[in-house]
From TrEMBL:
Gene3D superfamilies: 1.10.8.60, 1.20.272.10, P-loop containing nucleotide triphosphate hydrolases (3.40.50.300). This is DNA polymerase III subunit delta. Pfam families: DNA_pol3_delta (PF06144). The gene is holA. It comes from the Bacteria. The keyword Nucleotidyltransferase applies. One of its GO terms (molecular function) is DNA binding. One of its GO terms (cellular component) is DNA polymerase III complex.
């Protein structure tokens, strides 16, 4: 069973108040959300008598018989056991899917002698389409928890909820300020919220207080730049581009991936045929596909084909061919597309 849509952590607390499932699978690349979800399951398991804990880390090669031994041997002290299965690479390796399917088949609807807590890192959309994982999603004996960090538009609301936990609040402009300074780094975002709780008493905060306390800990990456362009968010694109330049990111690499997105938009917006069929043939992650759909419906000052020609020219400038500043030209191109 998939607990939630994009972020299953919001429904986890309510679920843990009832009977525990025999298997939990947490996947996501954001460490804060994964840590908090796993800690909540551990605490619920301890409260319900799962006193013994065994940790298995899947390396390559990994003997999957260890999982069978851990779940069939019972607790040394006659109680219940929590078995943590950690998959750092998101890859199960040989025998993994079969072992997990066997475990799923032998499990009942509620945890009895053992409880499996599985954490899957670097678990992308391709891995989520595998047969064994889809069986977990559709099974009543397993709970799948996706830990997806909030996007920039949802981040102020997430921050407001964290502030409310410590009986504080902030106006929209202060929340936007925090969001722009912690984007892409939820661990640091949580630390900044906790800092506000230490510096100021409970109650409402104002923008001046937030500015004085919050550090710029945003973790900018190329994916944010691509998303900002497809979303038509010019301020975010400009801010991310400037940040990546300060971080010393290679411009040719940025241009390569931006040109890939623009080339896909050229194909998607070409006359004739079904845009949805074209999109499905591109085999891209669902979130990127949705951004492409939105971008295709948005009116731009120049066509995507013209943008492809422009980015080819900017690429030549980045390699010293021609006259002009490629960073300035890229910012100007974004102005035409956002």
């Amino acid at each position: 069973m998939n607990l939630g849509g994009t972020d299953g952590t919001s429904r986890l607390a309510a679920h843990l108040n009832g009977p525990l499932a025999p298997i939990y699978a947490i996947h996501g690349d954001d460490p804060l959300l994964v840590i908090e979800a796993a800690d909540a399951i551990r605490a619920a398991a301890r409260a319900k008598g799962f006193d013994e804990r065994e940790v298995l880390t899947v390396s390559h090669p990994f003997d999957w018989k260890q999982l069978a031994y851990a779940t069939q041997g019972g607790s040394l002290f006659g109680g219940c056991k929590l078995v943590e299965l950690r998959v750092p690479t998101g890859k199960l390796g040989r025998g993994g899917p079969e072992a997990l399917q066997a475990l799923l088949d032998q499990s009942g609807p509620a945890a009895t002698d053992y409880l499996i807590l599985m954490t899957l890192h670097e678990f992308g959309w391709r891995e989520q389409k595998t047969a064994w994982f889809q069986n977990f999603v559709s099974s009543k004996n397993a709970i799948v928890i996706p830990c997806v960090p909030p996007g920039i538009k949802a981040l102020p609301r997430w921050l407001a909820e964290r502030l409310a936990r410590q009986q504080q609040s902030a106006p929209p402009d202060a929340l936007e300020y925090i969001a722009h300074h912690v984007e892409g780094n939820l661990l640091a975002a949580n630390q900044e919220i906790l800092k506000l709780g230490l510096l100021y008493p409970t109650g409402p905060l104002n923008l001046e207080q937030v500015r004085a306390a919050v550090a710029d800990v945003a973790r900018l990456d190329l994916d944010m730049l691509r998303s900002a362009l497809l979303d038509g968010d010019l301020p975010r694109f400009s801010r991310t581009l400037a940040g990546l330049r300060e971080q010393g990111e290679a411009l040719p690499l940025m241009l390569y991936w931006l040109s890939e997105d623009i080339r896909a938009m050229v194909q998607l917006t070409a006359p004739g045929g079904s845009p949805e069929q074209r999109l499905s043939s591109m085999r891209m992650p669902p979130q990127r596909a949705q951004q492409m759909r939105s971008a295709a419906s948005r009116r731009t000052k120049i066509s995507w084909r013209s943008a492809l020609e422009s980015i080819a020219r900017i690429d030549r400038l980045s390699k010293g061919i021609g006259q002009g500043d490629p960073w300035t030209e890229l910012a100007a191109l974004a102005l035409q597309l956002c």
